[in-house]
Design a protein that fits this description.
about 120 residues, mainly alpha, 434 Repressor (Amino-terminal Domain), 2 domains, elongated, Lambda_DNA-bd_dom_sf
Length: about 120
């Protein structure tokens, strides 16, 4: 991509600077900051399941990357994606997750939460 084709003020622009080993320009840094703030907000709004998974991992004293390694997942970011609701996992994966943390999966009667269409 040529410098004149860069979309400054976007996350793509920020990534372009980083790939070139440069410090990002002001507008690209602002876009990156907004992206980070949005990610943090999504994490704060994680589902009850995501919050429970995060708490169980933290009680076990494991980082996201350490748990991903124990589970044999290729990306160290996968655990965070599940915890913040960006990715869904199968019941089998949840069972493996619980086993790695020394926990069990329980269904607790209560209010049913509606999920947005995925």
């Amino acid at each position: 991509m040529r410098p004149e084709d860069v979309e400054h003020g976007t996350q793509r622009g920020y990534a372009w600077h980083r790939r070139r080993g440069e410090h990002a320009c002001g507008p690209c840094m602002e876009a990156h900051g907004r992206d980070l703030a949005n990610r943090r907000a999504r994490r704060a709004e994680a589902s009850p399941l995501g919050r429970s998974l995060t708490q169980a991992r933290q009680r076990a004293g494991l980082s996201e990357a350490e748990l991903a390694e124990q589970l044999g997942w290729s990306s160290p970011y996968s655990v965070g994606w599940v915890e913040n609701g960006s990715r869904r996992v199968s019941l089998q994966a949840l069972e493996e997750w619980a086993a790695a943390l020394g926990c069990r999966i329980e269904l607790i009667p209560g209010e049913v939460l509606e999920e947005s269409a995925a």
